[in-house]
Amino acid sequence: MEGLSNEELIEAIRNPTDGQEIIVRGNNVLNGNGRIKEAQRRGLTGVIPVDILPDEEPMGPWEN
Q1: How big is the chain by its Cα radius of gyration, in Å?
Q2: How far is Cα 11 from Cα 5, in angstroms, rounded to an integer?
Q3: Are 25 and 59 in contact (CB under 8 A)?
Q4: Three-state DSSP state, 40
Q5: At how many degrees (to 10) do helices 33-42 and 6-14 cross?
Q6: Whole-model pTM?
Q7: Counting beta carbons within 10 angstroms of the beta carbon of residue 39, is it exposed (0 to 12), middle (13 to 18) or buried (19 or more)?
Q8: Terminus-to-terminus CA distance in the chain, angstroms?
């Protein structure tokens, strides 16, 4: 992910060429967490298609 330009990373989040869309359950990213973390690291939080809770915010239990 670090080798992508900002534009390439945004495109990978919005329209992944490999079909690996961002999948979220509750507040947990199940698929695409590498792209999300890299976007956060770069300060590109406006392109992340999910609500982000602070690290201190407790997460609910997984639901099956």
Answers
A1: 12
A2: 10
A3: no
A4: helix
A5: 140
A6: 0.67
A7: buried
A8: 30
* Structural domain of 21: 6-45
* 39-57 confidence digits (pLDDT tens): 989 998 787 776 555 555 5
Q: How far apart are CA 21 and CA 32, in angstroms?
A: 7
Query: What does the block give as tokens for 50?
Result: 């999910």
Can you tell me the distance from the alpha carbon of 10 to that of 45, in angstroms, rounded to the nearest whole number?
Answer: 10
Give the whole-angstrom CA distance, residue 16 versus residue 22: 9
Domain count, the chain: 1
In a domain, 13, yes or no: yes
Q: Are strands 23-25 and 28-31 parallel, antiparallel or unpaired?
A: antiparallel
